[in-house]
Amino acid sequence: MERLGDHDGWTLERLRDAVVPPTRLRTCSGPALHGLLAAAVEDVGPGPFGSQARSPTFLQALEGVLEELAHGSVSAPALEEAAARLGSTGARLGHLARLIDAATTHMDRAGVELAPSRWVTASSVLARGWPAHLLLQQVELTVAPPLSPGMVGFLSALARAASSSGRALAVRVPLTGDAHTDAALEPVLQAFEAGPDLPGVELLPELAEGPLSEPVRRLGVAAPGSLPTDALEAVVAPGPRREAAALVDALRRALDAGASLDRCAFAVLGTPQAAELERALEDAGVPVRRRAPVPLGTTVAGRLGLLWAGLAARRAPAEDLAWLLRQRLLPRIRVDARLDPLPLLRRAGVRDAALGAEGRSNAYQVRLGVFAARSREAGDARDGDAAERLLGAATGLLDLAERIPRQGRLADLLEAWRAGLDAAGFWTALEEEELESDPRARRASAREAAAVEVWRAFVRDARAGWKASRSPGPEMDRAAFVRWLIDAAATLPVELAPGAPGGIDVLPLESLDGRPLDFLGVAGVDAASFPRRAPASLLGDEERQAIHGVLGRAAVPALVGSGDARSPLAEAVDRWRLGRALASAGRIAISRRRSAGGAPADVVQRLLGVTGVQERDLSSQPIPTLAEAPGPAWARVRLALEGTVAPDLRSDAADPVAAAALEHLAGTAWLEDARTLAGVEAERLQTAAGLRAPGAYSGRLGPAEDLVAAVNGRLGGSPEGPLSSTSLTALANCPFQGLSRKVLGLEPPEDGAEELDARGRGQFLHEALEQLVKRLLALGLAGADPATLPADLVPQAVQTAAREHARCAPTGHPRLWALAQTRARTTLERLLRSGRLYPFAGLRPAAAEERFGPDLELPAALPGERPVYFRGTLDRVDRGPSGTGVLDYKSSKRRERARAEVLVTDFQLPLYLLALRGRGERPPFQAGWLSLRTLEFLPLDPDRTGPLESFLATDAATRSSTSAPNLATAVHALLAEPRQGLFPVRPRECGFCPLGSVCRISERRAPQGGEG
Ligand code: SF4
Fold first, then answer.
1. Least confident of 17-31, 180-194, 519-533
2. 266 has which bridge partners?
3. How far is the CA of 820 from the centre of ligand 1 (A)?
4. Which protein residues are within 6 Å of ligand 1, measured from CB?
5. 474 preceded by cis ω (within 30°)?
């Protein structure tokens, strides 16, 4: 027993333990108790509670009821009697009574007790008189909500025993003075007021003494605005970061005004607010002493444990597996830091272990194996090696995760989960690491170490509970186990180690210890989130009334207070805590986040009303002014904004303090960096809008001659490096796209989808058609009547094309790939049998996939031009006595607009015609597109090209004398800018650009006024 003197730091709990020293029974709660409660559910059955009765949430609620009943000294028989009084509606309460009875039996057998039951025991000891072993003459203590009936009963018994034994007892009750706000303390006040006068016993109501104590005390009676104060400020912020910035700025001002940091605190209602505040405090250089606990599920260790449990049950999603393989907390299966698993899995088309699995091989084995083989065949040994290493790591991880049985008793599933993590090195990973030198990294490690310890304690307590109940828990499958684990553990609090001594506290509202503060900041308090609702109880109002009827007293009240002040207990406690904290602190800053229909919490709203303080709305000022910036990070953002934004683009007023400060910061490295970045963005937007010539960040290479020469070398157009029509198309659509593809050699990122994308489908159909025509030519059937052609022509062509396609490109899921082949067969059959394969009257296929160039030349004829050489492949050449036709197979939707795009972004058919002429083919020439989507033939429109003689003319005289479209003129004009090293970001259309997924510029537009 503690040896405390008459006045030394007595609390209600300490007095209770002094009256009744802890017995050999262990107090029990949480996961350890849940094992016993689960055993009770197994004994009695779930009854009207159904399958939910086996969930941790139900067991948590059952624990809550057990505690309430213990506080109220309510026995299982009393519950049964109440259930009987309820008649047909008492079935639920009756079953609850049986559960409570079974749980009590299990707890007795296991030698454990609930902490609240000790109040009742202590009260009954005091009822017999002051205990002789308690050598105290005077006791002073302070009580604070929540005060259960058991605690109030103990206090009454203590008062009677003290008075009758001639001892002095002083009970201080901290109040705000407002009945609504103090409702949570009403039970203790009533107990003393209703009882007899007890000599030597004093109940000492204590009002707070801060500058806001009077407004809080008169919340319900003072006229609006009648109690003005400058100790209160309230803000509405557009987001959590801005909210934290405003609160830390308020703290900074309080410190400037003389507040002592160790007498300052922030109170929060949730983890995200605490995290934002801590970030803002760190930026401002303010040390934090005590921190709010975080839920286990928000830590890396917490997330890791939950994902591990679900990996096998959820068929190992690629995202989860990739994340797990990168974790330092799994040192024995972690992959090399240089190997990023997710992009590689995407490229290999791995979604999870099931999609694409074959036989006994899971999809990781199948698809990573295929990817590795394809990479090697394409000569990319690095990708091949990486895929094989990743496959090894994934297999190792899946082997461990698969150890969790598909079906089993809960204790066995948890043990398999624990053992798998153990094999991966989870439990000791941080112990084996060297101490971090960076304080932030050290803090992060300490947080993860604490989270690992929470997992360890959870496993230990759960095991202890099952052991005590002599039951391995209910039978369940993997999916149910994951749900159970999330339910039981995700919200367990991870207590963080204290930080710097003398720093500020960032604590949950309920953890404020009642000491007077110079400054209190309260974050995230609005009508939706405050006061917080208690979790739903298993006892309904009617059932509580029935219990009270049986016992003749309010043993398990759900409400406290009277009249208008009556409210649920948890809400009343929250209200009192906030009211008391507001009334005690020297300076208050309250914030909430703007939300649709949002309003301040009721206590705050009434306080704003009586003080006349207005909430300051920060929505139009997402970045604090320099004077209000709480730390260097925000200050830099404001200064950078002030120093770079064009006046026409401002959404808020200029900040004169920042503008003045800028003058003294000229040349500062970070500001210059910010200016450079802003300049880069402005340049890109303006170039894209055609407002300026390209610069160094928007597509200009050069002007150094050697650089421009190197660019020209890569750009091509010479006999050694001829151009293709595809390059011309890229340059014409967006010179920057041409630069990326042709000069820099960037390829669009590969994504192994389940199905061929539009581009892949087009390529495959193109290849199949090529095979078909080649086969017709090889068999001498190009001129045959389609009705007489052999039946296997198309299937064989598609089969050959499929084999070729699969060698060099991902083909997705085998079944969808088979469907794609079927579709290709149908399309080609229709094309062949309908005769649409032969669109030129009198001409029949004579050649397929014939190469031309690199000597196909557009000579320099006019000043400033340089010869351009091309090469390419003619999709198909048809010949006959009436001339020559050239066909371009097209699959994309854009081809419907193909004719309008000739010499704008489409140069294919004009170059084909030039090639035909260069090869001396028999005129007249015909040309057109064969759409593989609609099987429609689109002839090149003579209205758009004019006579082919002038369209294909390359000599100066013809080109100068005609205003009709001319291939050479269009190509030379298109290449004029790139030849000077200019590739402006000037997109005609980003939608079809293969770089769209990685291009930062895309179709962003400079807003009006962007000229500045
Ligand atoms: S996404 Fe748009 S801006 Fe970017 S390269 Fe492609 S076409 Fe140009």
1. 17-31
2. 506, 521
3. 30
4. 733-734, 736-737, 740, 985, 987, 990, 993, 995-996, 999, 1001-1002
5. no
Give pLDDT tens digits for 673-688: 988 888 888 888 888 7
Q: Does 793 score more than 90 pLDDT?
A: yes
1002 pLDDT band, cuts 50/70/90, is low
Q: Is the pLDDT of residue 417 over 90?
A: yes
- Tell me the percentage of the chain whose pLDDT exceeds 70: 97
**CA 901 to centroid of ligand 1, rounded, Å:** 18
Ligand 1 centroid – CA 736 distance (Å): 7
- Report strand pairing: 505-508 vs 264-268: parallel
Q: How far is the CA of 135 from the centre of ligand 1 (A)?
A: 85
Q: Where are the beta strands (DSSP E) in 833-967?
A: 844-858, 868-880, 883-890, 925-931, 937-939
pLDDT digits (tens, 9 = 90+) for 202-224: 999 999 999 999 999 999 899 99
The pLDDT of residue 954 is 95
Cα of 67 vs its chain's centroid, Å: 37
Q: Whose CA is nearest to atom 4 of ligand 1?
A: 1002
Q: Out of 687, 737, 746, give the residue to mutate to test ligand 1, the one with the largest number of ligand atoms within 8 Å of its CB.
A: 737
For residue 1009, what pLDDT is reported?
A: 44
**Cα–Cα distance, 286 to 276 (Å, whole number):** 14
User: What's the whole-number mean pLDDT along residues 7-30?
Assistant: 80
Taking the alpha carbons of 959, 963, 964, 965 in that order, is the dihedral positive or negative? positive
Q: Which atom of ligand 1 is nearest to the CA of 1000?
A: 4
Q: pLDDT tens digits, residue range 488-541?
A: 899 899 998 888 788 999 999 999 988 889 999 999 999 999 999 888 899 999
- Do 307 and 323 form a contact (C-beta atoms < 8 A)? yes
User: Does residue 703 have a cis bond before it (omega within 30 degrees)?
Assistant: yes
pLDDT tens column, 304-342: 999 999 999 999 999 999 999 999 999 999 999 889 999
For residue 495, give every residue at least 6 positions away whose Cβ sits within 8 Å of its Cβ, in sequence order, or none.
Answer: 293, 450
Give the whole-angstrom CA distance, residue 451 versus residue 294.
9
Residue of 983, 989, 992, 999 to test ligand 1 pocket, by largest number of atoms within 8 Å of CB: 999
Atom of ligand 1 nearest to the CA of 688: 3
**CA-CA distance, 282 to 947, in Å (whole number)?**
74
Q: Which of 897, 895, 898 is nearest to 766 (CA)?
A: 895
182 or 756, greater pLDDT: 182
Please tell me the least confidently modeled range out of 14-18, 683-687, 970-974. 683-687
**Backbone φ and ψ of 145, nearest 5°:** -65, 160
| Distance from Cα 597 to the centre of ligand 1, integer Å | 41
- Closest residue to atom 3 of ligand 1, CA basis: 1002
How many A from CA of 728 to the centre of ligand 1? 15
Distance from residue 730's CA to the centre of ligand 1 (Å): 9
pLDDT at 7: 57
Task: Supply φ then ψ for residue 420, to 5 degrees.
Answer: -60, -45
Distance 872 CA to ligand 1 centre (A): 24
Q: Say if residue 28's pLDDT is above 80.
A: no
Domain range summary for the chain, segments of one domain joined by +: 12-212, 216-292+502-533+558-617, 296-494, 628-688
| H or E element that contains 205 | strand 201-207
* CA of 733, closest atom in ligand 1: 7
CATH of 216-292+502-533+558-617, one of 3.30.70.1120, 3.40.50.720, 2.40.440.10, 3.40.50.300: 3.40.50.300
Mean pLDDT within 646-656? 77
How many A from CA of 692 to the centre of ligand 1? 17
Q: Out of 743, 993, 997, give the residue to mutate to test ligand 1, the one with the largest number of ligand atoms within 8 Å of its CB.
A: 993
